[in-house]
From TrEMBL:
<comment type="function">
    <text>Allows the formation of correctly charged Asn-tRNA(Asn) or Gln-tRNA(Gln) through the transamidation of misacylated Asp-tRNA(Asn) or Glu-tRNA(Gln) in organisms which lack either or both of asparaginyl-tRNA or glutaminyl-tRNA synthetases. The reaction takes place in the presence of glutamine and ATP through an activated phospho-Asp-tRNA(Asn) or phospho-Glu-tRNA(Gln).</text>
</comment>
<protein>
    <recommendedName>
        <fullName>Aspartyl/glutamyl-tRNA(Asn/Gln) amidotransferase subunit C</fullName>
        <ecNumber>6.3.5.-</ecNumber>
    </recommendedName>
</protein>
<comment type="similarity">
    <text>Belongs to the GatC family.</text>
</comment>
<keyword id="KW-0547">Nucleotide-binding</keyword>
<keyword id="KW-0436">Ligase</keyword>
<comment type="subunit">
    <text>Heterotrimer of A, B and C subunits.</text>
</comment>
<keyword id="KW-0648">Protein biosynthesis</keyword>
<keyword id="KW-0067">ATP-binding</keyword>
<dbReference type="InterPro" id="IPR003837">
    <property type="entry name" value="GatC"/>
</dbReference>
<dbReference type="InterPro" id="IPR036113">
    <property type="entry name" value="Asp/Glu-ADT_sf_sub_c"/>
</dbReference>
<dbReference type="Pfam" id="PF02686">
    <property type="entry name" value="GatC"/>
</dbReference>
Length: 95
């Protein structure tokens, strides 16, 4: 896939990046270099290679998945403009 200056202009606009007209050919060249590198990566055979989260093997900390109130509901509700019976009170929006 090749990126031309029109596509580079469109990508810059979508990314909300101001690029001067004379810099568009250089930006298109950089996009093409990135896409070429990605194509090289897709040629690598990764069959049997497990995904990793870090370069050093480690186990993630685990905890039981239990529903709790967080341990400080009064503190949380103190920020609410209106709280009743231990819950946030909100205006009724559906009749």
């Amino acid at each position: 896939m090749s990126i031309d200056t029109d596509t580079a202009r469109r990508v810059a606009r979508l990314a909300r990046i101001r690029v001067e007209e004379d810099q568009l050919p250089a930006l298109a060249g950089e996009f093409n270099a990135i896409l070429g590198f990605i194509e090289q990566l897709s040629e690598v055979d990764v069959t049997g290679v497990e995904p990793m989260t870090s370069v050093t093997p480690q186990r993630l900390k685990r905890r039981d998945d239990e529903v709790t109130d967080g341990g400080y509901p009064k503190k949380v509700l103190s920020n609410a403009p209106d709280a009743r019976e231990g819950f946030f009170a909100v205006p009724k929006v559906v009749e």
